[in-house]
Specification:
The protein is an alpha/beta fold. It has 13 helices and 23 strands. Helix content is 30%, strand content 23%.
Length: 448
Amino acid sequence: MRRMIIGGTHSGCGKTTVTCAILQALCDRGMQVASFKCGPDYIDPMFHEKIIGTDAYNLDSFFCTDNTLRYLLYENSCCKDAAVIEGVMGFYDGAGGRGSACSLAQITDTPAVIVIDCKGMSDSIGAVMKGFLTYREPNCIAGFIFNRLPERRSGFAERLCAELGTEYFGFLPANSITIESRHLGLVTADEIANLKENMHFLGDLAQKHILLDKLLKQSERTVPIYEASIVPSLDFPHAPVIAVARDRAFCFIYQDNIALLKKLGCKIVYFSPLEDSHVPNHADGMLLSGGYPELYAKKLSENCSMLADIRKKIEAGMPCIAECGGFLYLHDTLEDAKGNHYHMAGVIEGKAYQTQRLQRFGYVTMTAGADNILCKKGEAIPAHEFHYWDSTACGEGFTARKMDGRQWKCVHANEHLYAGFPHLYFYSDIRIAKKFAGACAQYGGGNG
């Protein structure tokens, strides 16, 4: 089973560029490739999906047990020719180590390739390499790819690898391909008009300058050992239909969340709060995904029939999970990036407004203050926050705690609603998905 992690020295070193170049080059060879993102990021997998033509997934060692990570890696790549995993931040960075690309490499026995941004460096490249190789051991580092390295310096980089006893996997020269950033990271793949051409250009660079055959050879590993029976079999008299918001404004969706709901017996239908007039009539529950509603606030506000239908269904008791962007959408008003305020669904009595920096960023553990749609009082759920917008009504259903001891109240939670900034990953605690699916089935059975 071929698998590799493309890690990096830091955020912005070129991990996404190198990963996309390798994915495109392997696809151009006719290979079937699985792709993953280490950590909770939504946007990088969107780029992967545009290249490989199918779903991309996340592998997060903060959210998941070791067994679950091995299961997900195998489950989502067992029929492919190779699996490529893009790292997160710097190779060793994460929630106290847990959550890092390094921890994922060790848990899944996956060789890691470190991307170094060589712009502005010469011999110091060797110091960076040695530091990463020796900082913590074992670390699963197999070798290096040198980004923005002049071709005339490739022999120098190869000699450094030989001196340090590690593998040289090639380089990418400086090029004109840039992907713009936004307040939550890169712009989404659908917003780049010439994305396909850019990816093929990167793929051609990889074919020429990255040692793909050597990379594939070094990536060969035995299948990770895991306990397979982690997803329970639920028998619903009525298969619950869950409507998932998915369009330009609501695009932050973990594919594993959707896959798990399907495995539990749910049917998934998608709808657009931007374009559709109402939630699908046969829906028994809703997932209002995260995304960028603040960029489309005017159009969302003008779709009055959708806003009224969502409010009506939630007030009638339809089970709903509304995360981050979906939570903003449920407010009385939402401020857009230009400072304009627009009416939204009015389920949450409060205003959603812009701030100038990330709010409460990072992993948290949330403890429920009362029984709710996802868990019982006192039970804990892992989650992740990543948002610039804030609210005058964040909710008090849970207490969120970070590893450094900081804590705050968050989330509107009752027997049929979870609405708040923290994002949920269902494989972190499968009981979350079971409880939600069960609530949807019960609602559908009582209203069908």
